[in-house]
Amino acid sequence: MALKITTLNVNGLRSAERRGFRRWLKRAAPDVLCLQEIRCDKDSAPRSLWRPRGWQVAWHSAEKKGYAGTAVWARSASAEFTIGSGHPRGDAEGRAVCVRLPELDVWSLYMPSGSSGPERQAWKFEFMEYAWEWLARLRQSGRPTLLCGDINIAHRPIDLKNWRGNQKNSGFLPEERAYLDRLFASGWRDVFRERHPDKVAYSWWSNRGRAREKDVGWRLDYILATPGVTILDCAIEREADLSDHAPVSAWIEVERAKESSARRGTVPVSR
């Protein structure tokens, strides 16, 4: 059975709701929705969003109010959740959350940005180093897995408009691009590029200089897949206009995985 998986950096869930988030969600109808930069918690989010009807939801809010955070929504009644990647600072910032379905695991990930200065870039590199080992373990487990979210790195010149002028800027540094080279060489697959090798399409635009109108953007949002996941298609929905990012969706098929006898790190579904 085919599944639709969608990821979106909402740049504040309450802000996205004011821009039509639930109307878009009804129309888009994904089976799994991964959100990043939710910027809310149980006390600040509307209850209708925190406990949406028809969804099983896990939230990983940042300890700092109004900052970062991730969530994953699933329509499956058998969904189970894992909160966090195991990195103390990353988990304090709500950087990762996973839904475990019978067929596969789907992670929502929000990689730190380094654009505000050297200290933030150093933190980004620290998390990237940790994520390398963490993602290797996920891939080596043999369980079909998707990693969905705002990676905050444009991989190749095709993935941002002004690549020549951004080679010394966070998000397109040589070390960052080499990191993705190694990640993809290790077995993780860039789903969008697998289906559209030569297509120019961006998923983030600055709010300055009419960047979205001029399509001066970056492809920072990814769906990555391990072997064993069949990709039917992948698309970036530029017209959604819910935040400065665009939703990215993949239509996939995967054989029903055998259930592990031990389920570590899962939490009851939110109802």
Task: Describe this structure as you would to a colleague.
By secondary structure, the chain is an alpha+beta fold. The chain has one domain (3-256): Deoxyribonuclease I, Chain A. It has helices at 13-18, 21-28, 47-50, 88-92, 118-140, 174-185, 191-195, 211-214, and strands spanning 3-9, 32-36, 56-60, 70-74, 80-83, 96-100, 105-110, 145-150, 189-190, 204-205, 217-218, 221-225, 229-236, 248-254, 266-267. It starts with a strand and ends with a strand. Mean pLDDT is 93; it is low at 257-271.
Record keyword descriptors for this entry:
single chain; 271 residues; alpha+beta; Deoxyribonuclease I, Chain A; 7-stranded mixed beta sheet; 6-stranded mixed beta sheet; 8 helices; 15 strands; 25% helix; disordered C terminus
